[in-house]
């Protein structure tokens, strides 16, 4: 506004407070109308050319319309000032052209600022939408992984119960009681993304009793977790899946006992078992270990470490600090 008035009136614009206020007020009234119209046109341009690929076309069309509107406004202002001899202004081609060039430069600069700000705003909105979509996709995948655990665990539990009913009805009754405790935890934890290590340990204690009932001295669990780490977090069912994985792929027999150790070392949780693979290939749907790896990745936590030697299979799990 100041530049337009100065290009039109020169030093007269700043000669007195009356001149400055009069010219500024007149120009402001007309410029406000132009700003409103420009805003409406800008929104329409975004609707017509929303894609980034159409940005150049949108800028060219919008700038052309803006320059036309501003040229019309400047022409009218020059005519108004000259026709009524306002502030000593005379409408000549030179004065009109000078005002037109000044207003065109201002319009192009304003257009560039508007397009830059608008582009950053659209990019930010796109990023937020992409992040939200990614979060929803990860949540869907995570829920899908959790749903795979229930039928898998139930299938193995019912197989164990079926074997016990035929061989030892009393142990079968004890097995059902322990299985009910396990499923109470399972149903509760299925709605959570993380649980405390203490709760996991309590849960696998019941789960280990189920395995001890089935395998006797063939299965030897050892849990030794330092107290300060028991409040740390990890995905629910992690320990159960690792223990189940060890039992599934190794010989479990009193003559060849399977020892599964759960302990902490250097701030990490370690689950290991002695390696004595079954001779017969075990059919696996890969829900166990791959499920745990996927959970940590979906939650954006450090990957777990898996290693195998001739005598031992080991999984190192990062413990998540409990902020509460």
TrEMBL record:
One Pfam match, by short name?
His_kinase
Ranges for domain Signal transduction histidine kinase internal region: 141-217
Q: Keywords of this protein's UniProt record, alphabetized?
A: Kinase, Membrane, Transferase, Transmembrane, Transmembrane helix
Q: Which residues cross the membrane?
A: 12-38, 59-82, 94-114
Alphabetical list of InterPro entries matching this protein = Bact_2-comp_sensor_kinase, Sig_transdc_His_kin_internal
Q: GO molecular function terms here?
A: kinase activity
Keyword flag Kinase: yes
Q: Where is the signal peptide?
A: none
Q: Does the keyword Thylakoid apply?
A: no
What is this protein called in UniProt? Answer: Histidine kinase
């Amino acid at each position: 506004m100041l530049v337009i008035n100065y290009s039109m009136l020169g030093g007269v614009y700043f000669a007195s407070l009356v001149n400055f206020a009069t010219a500024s007020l007149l120009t402001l009234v007309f410029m406000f109308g132009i700003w409103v119209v420009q805003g409406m046109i800008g929104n329409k341009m975004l609707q017509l050319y929303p894609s980034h690929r159409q940005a150049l076309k949108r800028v060219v069309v919008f700038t052309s319309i803006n320059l036309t509107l501003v040229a019309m406004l400047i022409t009218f202002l020059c005519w108004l000032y000259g026709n009524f001899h306002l502030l000593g202004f005379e409408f000549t081609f030179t004065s009109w052209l000078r005002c037109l060039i000044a207003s065109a430069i201002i319009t192009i600069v304003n257009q560039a600022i508007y397009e830059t700000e608008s582009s950053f705003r659209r990019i930010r909105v796109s990023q937020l939408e992409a992040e939200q979509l990614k979060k929803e996709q990860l949540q869907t995948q995570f829920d899908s992984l959790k749903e795979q655990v229930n039928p898998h665990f139930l299938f193995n539990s019912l197989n164990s119960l079926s074997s016990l009913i035929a061989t030892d009805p009393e142990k079968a009754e004890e097995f059902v009681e322990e299985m009910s405790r396990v499923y109470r935890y399972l149903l509760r934890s299925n709605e959570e993304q993380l649980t405390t290590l203490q709760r996991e340990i309590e849960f696998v204690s019941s789960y280990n009793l189920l395995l001890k009932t089935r395998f006797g001295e063939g299965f030897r669990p050892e849990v030794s977790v330092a107290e300060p780490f028991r409040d740390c977090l990890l995905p629910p069912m992690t320990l159960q899946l690792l223990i189940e994985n060890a039992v599934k792929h190794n010989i479990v027999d009193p003559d060849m006992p399977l020892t599964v150790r759960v302990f902490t070392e250097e701030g990490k949780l370690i689950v290991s078992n002695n390696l004595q693979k079954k001779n017969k290939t075990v059919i696996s749907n890969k829900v166990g270990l791959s499920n745990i790896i996927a959970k940590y990745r979906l939650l954006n936590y450090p990957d777990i470490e898996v290693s195998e030697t001739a005598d031992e299979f080991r999984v190192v799990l990062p413990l998540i600090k409990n902020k509460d």
